[in-house]
Amino acid sequence: MTGTRQQPPTALTIAGSDSGGGAGLQADLRTFFAHGVHGMTAITAVTVQNSVGVQGVTEIPSGVVADQIRSVAGDIGAGAAKTGMLASTEIIRAVAAALDEVGIGSDHPTPLVLDPVAASMHGDPLLAEQALEAIRTELVPRATVVTPNLDEVRLLTGIDVTDTDGQRDAARALVTMGARHALIKGGHLRGATDCLDLLYDGAGFTELSGPRYDTKHTHGGGDTLAASITAELARGATVPDAVAHGKRFIERCVADSYPLGAGIGPVSPLWRLES
Q1: How many structural domains comprise the chain?
Q2: Does residue 154 lie in a domain region?
Q3: pLDDT tens-digit profile of 125-178?
Q4: How far is CA 207 from CA 139, 186, 189, 202, in A?
Q5: Mean pLDDT of the chain
Q6: What pLDDT band is residue 121 in, cutting at 50, 70 and 90?
Q7: Are residues 257 and 269 in contact, defined by beta-carbon separation less than 8 angstroms?
Q8: Model confidence over 70-96: pLDDT tens digits?
Q9: Which among 226, 222, 228, 271 has a CA at the least distance from the CA of 31?
Q10: In a domain, 88, yes or no
Q11: Each residue's pLDDT tens digit, 39-50
């Protein structure tokens, strides 16, 4: 008996593996599945990681990363793609070249969501300055939408965001670097009573406000939001609609986050299985 289901929308994540399953490509694939999207991977690094922290990182050779992109995009095709942890300057440059080859990015038919994983949960840099510069010059100009948290904003733009005006300045800076849209997330904004994200397209701002939940279990939140946006783009949504959906999706995932191990648990899309 042969299957009769048609091919679903497809999305590609170019990211590192989280052995604890809370973030990285595992969170991306979980999110794609929750949106009815077939997920594909180009693995950039393998981390030795659990709920307490990261104990080790092994980079995948840059040529292998690029070949994974070419392989799946050339055969299966991708309705949208996202990046996560890219680990090194060499990987960033190889990814940028491969994306151009297969037609992914703001100047191509397939949209690219850039989640510039550049800072730890504590705000510490994860990339050397040379790699940060490669993100600025190689990937931000290719991004359909870039989704940094406030620590990543500081590392990429030099702007230390402390209020909404700072979010606006950061969004303008990223669009000036070449991104088509910039989503500046407010989850790390201290003293705020709600969680305000700002989307900027070079012409105007869209404010996306939501509740702030009292939980420490937020591992993988940035990955999940970016993956939700990517999945909606793969399904044909516009950037504003995809971002608005992603905002609602991550709110529910944070509300349904759960403890895991001895440290910080993940945000959870498992609620989708109950609806």
Answers
A1: 1
A2: yes
A3: 678 889 999 999 999 999 999 999 999 999 999 999 999 999 999 999 999 999
A4: 25, 11, 15, 14
A5: 94
A6: low
A7: no
A8: 999 999 999 999 999 998 999 999 999
A9: 228
A10: yes
A11: 999 999 999 999
CATH of the domain at 16: 3.40.1190.20
For residue 191, being part of any structural domain is answered with: yes
The amino acid occupying position 189 is: L
Cβ partners under 8 Å of residue 96, min gap 6: 134, 138, 139, 142
Q: Kindly state whether residue 3 falls inside one of the protein's structural domains.
A: no
Q: Find the domain containing 29 and state its range.
A: 10-270
Among residues 224, 220, 217, the alpha carbon closest in space to that of 250 is found at 224
Tell me the mean pLDDT in the region 11-36: 97
Tokens of 253: 């995932």
